């Protein structure tokens, strides 16, 4: 039985069906409370993401909310660190709110526009992004924190060289003490370029800047133990031991109306961070001084005057065995371009024996991918992972199901023994 809080009949009903990690807790050397306190004390590089539903309301950006957040992030940056750490804590802010700000700006000038379509959303973001940055600049000014606007698409991180370029830029900004404020480059984002939402973008940045903590500020109090549409009294989970074991479809309700994420995408993002060995703290972004109070509860700083320590929100624990950053990058910087269906033997070899995928284990091929493309690996219709293929779809169709000597007879000797090498495969990918 997990130690997750499970009051409420509805929540019990849903959670009882969640697969549990079993040995997960037994193997951990510290409780989740100890882990939360330790990480908050030690975190040096922190990605903080804040959604539109926190920053904006029907009238656009909510200035007092942005002012409060700027004061909190300035305080977080200066919070004491372990004695071997140098300089201040390094922060990256992922901020939504461009579409909401743009929509409100247009409405205030009497040109209310329909912004449900993709092109209209992109145009509204173009109107609002400048305002969003101006407002952040203004609220960080009294704290002496210079800011930098960084707009990214997934495509920017797809090519390894561009990923490394972006990493160098972030390193330089952080070295200078500048706060990077990141948003998806909505103007050029079309479906295959989109991160999907800023939760996804933030989880990719956790890898890019090698963060050791991800704080996601949301419009809700934390992760509810059951779909709130069905179980309105569902309690907040104070922690999640094994985010990969949660049935997100059952757990999450609808999306919030202002942002695009909802709790579903927050948990997917937390799951990606967990794979890297990075915990996520999901906090209610409109709770006054919530970051400072959470750090005060961990003993990092004094409790701010007039406030209580904040021990709530949801702590999502990192995976026991973090995956290599390179594997994370290859699995998540682009969408899979196709699928390979594998037989029982191949699935067993991949899942339980640490094997690579060989041509003999492939049953079917879908999509028109190239050699080196990212593909989904499916077994009985279920995704078991993603990986980089050594063969294009047409070549793979010629050799699927064949043994090595038979492959050589078709493609010649200069072929790869594996369709997907183990090192280029991420099992249990969040795609
Ligand atoms: N990039 C969008 C904006 O700034 C938000 C995307 C999201 O809500 O995740 O408005």
Explain this structure to me?
This protein has 431 residues and is an alpha/beta fold. The chain folds into two domains: 3-14 and 29-325, Acetylglutamate kinase-like (Carbamate kinase), CATH 3.40.1160; 336-427, PUA domain (Archaeosine Trna-guanine Transglycosylase, Chain: A, domain 4). 39% of the residues lie in helices and 16% in strands. Strand 2 (56-57) and strand 3 (60-61) form a beta hairpin. It is globular, with a radius of gyration of 23 Å.
Compose a concise summary of this entry:
It contains 17 helices and 15 strands.
Relevant terms:
single chain, 431 residues, alpha/beta, Carbamate kinase, Archaeosine Trna-guanine Transglycosylase, Chain: A, domain 4, 8-stranded mixed β-sheet, 15 strands, 16% strand, disordered N terminus, binds glutamic acid
Distance between the termini: 28 Å
Bound molecules: glutamic acid
The number of domains: 2
Report the sheet-strand fraction: 15-25%
Question: Describe the biggest sheet?
Answer: 8 strands, mixed
The name of the CATH topology of the largest domain is Carbamate kinase
**CATH 4th-level superfamily of the largest domain:** Acetylglutamate kinase-like
* CATH architecture label of the largest domain: 3-Layer(aba) Sandwich
Rg, nearest Å = 23 Å
Question: Got a strand count?
Answer: 15
The gross shape turns out to be: globular
Number of helices: 17
């Amino acid at each position: 039985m997990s130690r997750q809080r499970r009051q409420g009949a509805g929540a019990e009903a849903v959670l009882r069906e969640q697969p549990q990690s079993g040995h997960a807790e037994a193997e951990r050397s510290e409780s989740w409370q100890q882990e939360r306190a330790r990480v908050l004390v030690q975190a040096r590089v922190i990605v903080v993401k804040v959604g539109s539903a926190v920053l904006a309301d029907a009238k656009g950006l909510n200035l007092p909310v942005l002012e409060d957040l700027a004061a909190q992030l300035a305080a977080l940056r200066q919070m004491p660190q372990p004695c071997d750490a140098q300089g201040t804590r390094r922060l990256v802010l992922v901020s939504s709110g461009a579409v909401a700000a743009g929509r409100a700006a247009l409405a205030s000038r009497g040109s209310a526009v329909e912004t449900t379509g993709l092109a209209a959303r992109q145009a509204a973001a173009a109107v609002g992004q400048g305002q969003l940055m101006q407002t952040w600049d203004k609220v960080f000014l009294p704290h002496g924190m210079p800011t930098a606007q960084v707009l990214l698409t997934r495509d920017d991180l797809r090519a390894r060289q561009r990923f490394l370029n972006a990493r160098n830029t972030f390193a330089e900004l952080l070295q200078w003490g500048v706060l990077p404020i990141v948003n998806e480059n909505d103007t050029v984002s079309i479906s295959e370029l989109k991160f999907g939402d800023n939760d996804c973008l933030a989880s990719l940045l956790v890898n890019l800047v090698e963060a050791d903590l991800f704080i996601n500020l949301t419009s809700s109090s934390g992760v509810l133990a059951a779909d709130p549409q069905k179980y309105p009294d569902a309690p907040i989970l104070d922690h999640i031991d094994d985010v990969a074991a949660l049935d997100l479809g059952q757990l999450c309700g609808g999306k919030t109306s202002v942002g695009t994420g909802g709790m579903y995408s927050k948990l997917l993002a937390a799951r990606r961070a967990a794979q890297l060995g990075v915990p996520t703290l999901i906090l209610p972004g409109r709770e006054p001084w919530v970051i400072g109070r959470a750090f005060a509860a961990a003993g990092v700083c004094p409790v701010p005057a007039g406030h209580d320590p904040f021990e709530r929100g949801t702590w999502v624990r990192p995976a026991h065995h973090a995956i290599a950053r390179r594997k994370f990058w290859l699995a998540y910087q682009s969408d899979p371009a196709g699928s390979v269906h594998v037989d029982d033997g191949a699935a067993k070899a991949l899942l339980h024996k640490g094997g690579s995928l060989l041509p003999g284990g492939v049953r079917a091929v879908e999509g028109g991918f190239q050699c080196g493309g990212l593909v989904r690996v499916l077994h009985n219709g279920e995704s078991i992972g993603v990986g980089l293929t050594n063969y294009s779809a047409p070549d793979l169709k010629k050799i699927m199901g064949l043994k090595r000597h038979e492959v050589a007879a078709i493609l010649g000797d200069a072929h790869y023994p594996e369709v997907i090498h183990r090192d280029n495969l991420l099992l249990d990918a969040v795609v």
